[in-house]
C-alpha cells in the first residue's frame, strides 16, 4: 500500500514546528499547519486506504506540542518583560551589581560588590547621553569581596522608566581601569 504524502508532510512540518517554536511567527504557524495536514491526512488515509496513520497522528501531536511550547515561550517572555519593568536591572562588567535604584529626580544608586582579590577604588563616574551628570561622594573604595554603594546624579530627570550606562574609572592593585555599569528600571 502507498503512504499518504500528507501524513509525511504532517510529520515533517510537526518536527520543524516543534523545533522552531522558539521563534514567534515560525513557532505559531508551523504547528498549526502540521495539525491541519495531519487531520487532512487521516481523512485521506481512511478514504483512499493508504498507509501513514501513525505519521499523521505524530504530526498532529508534534503540532500540538509546538503550540504548547510556543505558548510557554510567550508567557515566559511576557513574565520577564513584566519583571524588568517593575524591577531595576543592573549589569556590570567588572563588579557584581547587588542592588540599584533610580529616582525620578535623576538620582541613581548602585550597590556594587568587588570581584577582585584586592580593594578597588572608584575614582570617577560618567553617564552616557541618557544621563549626563556627576557622581557624588567619590572616591568610593570597595574592599575585596565586599560591597559599597555608588551615588550618581543625572542632570536629566526620569519619568516612569529610567536607564543609564555609567563608565567608571577605578584603581585596583596599582592599575587604573575603566568599566561600564548599565542600570535600568522604573523611576520611583
Assembly type of the chains comes to single chain
Q: Calculate the terminal CA-CA distance, rounded to whole Å.
A: 71 Å
* Relative helix content: 25-40%
The CATH class label of the largest domain is: Mainly Beta
Report the portion of residues in β strands.
35-45%
Number of helices: 3
Q: Mind telling me the C-alpha Rg?
A: 27 Å
Give, in spatial order, the strands making up the sheet with the most strands. Answer: 1-9-8-4-6
Low-confidence sequence ranges: none
Summary tags:
alpha+beta, single chain, 5-stranded antiparallel beta sheet, 9 strands, Immunoglobulin-like, 188 residues, 4-stranded antiparallel beta sheet
Overview of the structural elements:
The protein has 188 residues and is an alpha+beta fold. The protein has 2 domains: 5-85, no CATH class; 89-186, Immunoglobulin-like (Sandwich), CATH 2.60.40. Helix content is 39%, strand content 36%. The protein has 3 helices and 9 strands, in the order αααβββββββββ. It has helices at 5-19, 24-48, 53-86; strands at residues 89-92, 95-102, 107-114, 120-127, 133-136, 140-142, 147-154, 161-172, 175-186. The strands form 2 sheets. A 5-stranded antiparallel beta sheet has the order 1-9-8-4-6. β2 (95-102) and β3 (107-114) form a beta hairpin. α1 runs antiparallel to α2 (24-48), α1 runs parallel beside α3 (53-86) and α2 (24-48) runs antiparallel to α3 (53-86). The longest helix has 34 residues, at 53-86. 33% of the residues are buried. The mean pLDDT is 85.
Amino acid at each position: 500500500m502507498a503512504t499518504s504524502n500528507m501524513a509525511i508532510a504532517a510529520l515533517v512540518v510537526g518536527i520543524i514546528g516543534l523545533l522552531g517554536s522558539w521563534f514567534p511567527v515560525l513557532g505559531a504557524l508551523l504547528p498549526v499547519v502540521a495539525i491541519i495536514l495531519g487531520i487532512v491526512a487521516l481523512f485521506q488515509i481512511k478514504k483512499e486506504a493508504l498507509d501513514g496513520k501513525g505519521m499523521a497522528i505524530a504530526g498532529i501531536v508534534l503540532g500540538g506540542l509546538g503550540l504548547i511550547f510556543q505558548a510557554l515561550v510567550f508567557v515566559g517572555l511576557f513574565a520577564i518583560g513584566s519583571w524588568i519593568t517593575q524591577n531595576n536591572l543592573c549589569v556590570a562588567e567588572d563588579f557584581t551589581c547587588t542592588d540599584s535604584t533610580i529616582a525620578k529626580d535623576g538620582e541613581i544608586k548602585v550597590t556594587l560588590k568587588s570581584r577582585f582579590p584586592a580593594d578597588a577604588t572608584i575614582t570617577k563616574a560618567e553617564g552616557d547621553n541618557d544621563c549626563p551628570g556627576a557622581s557624588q561622594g567619590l572616591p568610593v573604595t570597595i574592599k575585596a569581596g565586599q560591597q559599597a554603594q555608588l551615588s550618581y546624579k543625572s542632570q536629566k530627570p526620569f519619568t516612569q522608566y529610567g536607564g543609564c550606562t555609567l563608565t567608571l574609572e577605578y584603581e585596583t592593585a596599582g592599575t587604573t581601569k575603566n568599566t561600564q555599569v548599565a542600570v535600568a528600571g522604573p523611576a520611583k
